[in-house]
Fold:
Amino acid sequence: MSSTPASRPSEIVIAGSGVGALELALTLTELAGDAVRLRIVTPATEFHWRAHDLDTALGRGHVESHPVDSIAARARAEVVAGSVEAVEADSRTFVLDTGERLPYDTGVIAVGARAVPAFEHAWTLWPGTDLGEAVGDIASGFAQRVLIVIPKGTGWTLPAYVLAIALAERGTSVGIVTPEAVPLEGFGAVVGSTVSEIIRRLGVTLHVVAQPDVPAAGAVRLPNGWLEADRILTLPGLSGPALAGVPADVGGFVLAGPDGLVTGTDSLYAIGDAVAGVIPSGGLAALAAGRLGATLARAAGATGVPEPDRVFVRGVLPTADGPLYLEADPADPSHSVVSREALWWPAQRVAAPPLARFAASVIPEPT
Structure:
């Protein structure tokens, strides 16, 4: 890509160091080059693919992690240690927990959402959690009956089915309790039907359109009765970052338009799980980063910027017969695809091309 000479580069400050934040930084460097100056604000020193957490816990992979500094260096971005606590949109300034004030031409909030427990008496599958104890209990036979509970309002249910299939393939008695009408409802009818058949063959019991409660260890209460298990696992709930000075809903999630522009501002954007109404998916965060990166690159004077990709919801479901690649189009309910062949490239668990290319160019260090 090329850019039109400007008096100075556009100052873009990105808050966060997850998939969306780092994908945006790499995309901007690819598209805009020296027309932008990037800074990444984060307290983290390491990035790892959370999509691989369950694989790691189940003993079929390792945590792939990379120093944030290394990714930032590839993006030619400066890393600023700290967390954004407030935004002063009128003066275009991020206020950090360290007291530092960072001015920006364009600010981007990509800090993600906070995981919170959905039920007191269940083992929460936290992002980045160590499931060793729970899986160890199951593998040793101590927990022979497992229930996986999906809380109401969960936008990304894929991890529940990944875990259920993996445990059932090992001979564990597994049940899933979900508010969905069919498994992976957000992926459409074809995916739902396929996954229903897979778990049926494995003997996984499915309780759909259920609004469960977990009032005690080992017990799930449904409107029409009770379920019991040796171990109850649940996906977490989520809360927004609730940043001072940033318009948000009652849950603390940032209010922003389809283009990511934060409500009531002209130079502040938000992408990823921190945004109200967004499905908490690394792939969707990466896609939003790619689209925003193209917009900001053009604004900085870059030419030849390609049109952004269509919005697809994508995921990978590991099975004993190999991975299934899943795809849905939120704008077209009839687009529901299951494939044994990769539907995107690089064929990472998360469809994040620049970040995946970076990961492929370095040797990951098992942790």
